[in-house]
């Protein structure tokens, strides 16, 4: 059985159904190191796109994957970090679109929209999902902790510009974090920027998975309701539903491969093992505790597993 380097999933996505992930960057390379990041702290805090991998190698894997005929709803360029840091993004998106009729989506923090090259690349995607968590520079620095060369006004101006040029679906996302951006004033400032953006949907998220920093918490229900009202968005405040999938035969290795890209909580691991008719569930949970690569994080009263 072939193990993929750039492809993972499909993973149930709260917004897009069964999403096949394509990672065009090295692990934990990002322009931000968000306090709520589910991957932990960013290891490679970058300021501009660079070449990571050969596009042809990624497309070769995708061709192989398609031969397996596994159901998926969307192909998502996502990575473990910021995928628009990949210098060859346009070539990749066009290459993927030539190989499948499924929509190609890109999840981004939006910071690289300041580059013409990145805006041009993203225009080739069917769905672009940028995030906007702050309405001012101070909160931006507190919550997203960007690379020092990244300027808040430049990023929001680039987002507005892109939104007016782009013809595909633009789905915004705002992560609401207790004490960071959930005050009425902060929400109104975010709304002010959103008023200038031409988008199709706005999702409101909360840190449902273990965050990079232990002091990060979900907002209260009242604050979340207020955020939904002021921002005029849709809440996706619940864990993914649906089934995870892996091609890897060994149950333990399959989970390790999934959590290298997407942390799983205890219940997600259990239902994944049940779907594979696994007979030694307890043994696998024991192995998690012994494996030095795996971090078990206690969050919201249950264990979540992710790679260190
Ligand atoms: S949440 Fe996204 S933008 Fe923020 S550090 Fe993690 S990968 Fe980067």
Please report the distance between the alpha carbons of the first and last residues. 25 Å
The beta-strand count equals 13
Biggest sheet architecture: 8 strands, mixed
Which regions are unreliable across 5 or more consecutive residues at pLDDT < 50?
Answer: none
Pfam family, one: Radical_SAM
Cofactor: [4Fe-4S] cluster
Protein name: GTP 3',8-cyclase
Keywords: 4Fe-4S, Iron, Iron-sulfur, Metal-binding, S-adenosyl-L-methionine
Short description:
This is GTP 3',8-cyclase. With 308 residues, the chain is α/β, with parallel strands linked by helices.
How does this structure look, described?
This protein is α/β, with parallel strands linked by helices and 308 residues long. It has a single domain, classed as TIM Barrel (Alpha-Beta Barrel), CATH 3.20.20.70. The chain contains 10 helices and 13 strands. The chain has an 8-stranded mixed beta sheet with strand order 1-2-5-6-7-8-9-10. The protein has a 3-stranded antiparallel beta sheet with strand order 11-13-12. β5, α2 and β6 form a beta-alpha-beta unit. The site of iron/sulfur cluster (SF4) has 10 residues, from loops. One of its GO terms (molecular function) is catalytic activity.
């Amino acid at each position: 059985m072939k193990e993929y380097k750039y492809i993972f999933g499909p993973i149930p996505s709260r917004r897009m159904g069964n999403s096949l992930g394509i990672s065009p960057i090295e692990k934990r390379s990002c322009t931000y190191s968000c306090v709520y990041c589910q991957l932990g702290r960013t290891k490679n805090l970058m300021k501009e796109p660079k070449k990571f991998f050969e596009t042809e190698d990624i497309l070769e894997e995708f061709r192989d994957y398609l031969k397996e005929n596994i159901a998926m709803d969307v192909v998502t360029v996502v990575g473990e970090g910021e995928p628009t840091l990949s210098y060859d993004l346009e070539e990749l998106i066009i290459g993927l679109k030539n190989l499948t009729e499924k929509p190609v989506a890109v999840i981004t923090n939006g910071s690289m929209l300041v580059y013409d090259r990145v805006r041009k690349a993203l225009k080739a995607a069917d769905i672009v999902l940028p995030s906007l968590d702050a309405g001012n520079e101070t909160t931006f620095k507190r919550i997203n902790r960007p690379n020092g060369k990244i300027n808040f006004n430049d990023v929001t101006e680039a987002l507005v510009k892109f939104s007016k040029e782009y013809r595909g679906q633009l789905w915004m996302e705002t992560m609401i974090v207790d004490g960071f951006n959930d005050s009425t004033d902060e929400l109104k400032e975010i709304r002010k920027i959103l008023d200038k953006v031409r988008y199709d949907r706005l999702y409101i998220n909360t840190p449902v998975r273990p965050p990079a920093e232990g002091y990060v918490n979900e907002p209260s229900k009242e604050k979340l309701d207020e955020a939904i009202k002021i921002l005029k968005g849709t809440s996706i405040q619940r864990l993914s539903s649906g089934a995870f999938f892996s091609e890897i035969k060994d149950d333990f290795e399959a989970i390790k491969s999934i959590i290298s890209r997407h942390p799983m909580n205890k219940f997600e691991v259990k239902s994944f093992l049940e779907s594979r008719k696994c007979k030694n569930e307890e043994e696998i949970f024991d192995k998690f505790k012994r494996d030095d690569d795996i971090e078990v994080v206690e969050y919201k009263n249950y264990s979540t597993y992710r790679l260190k």
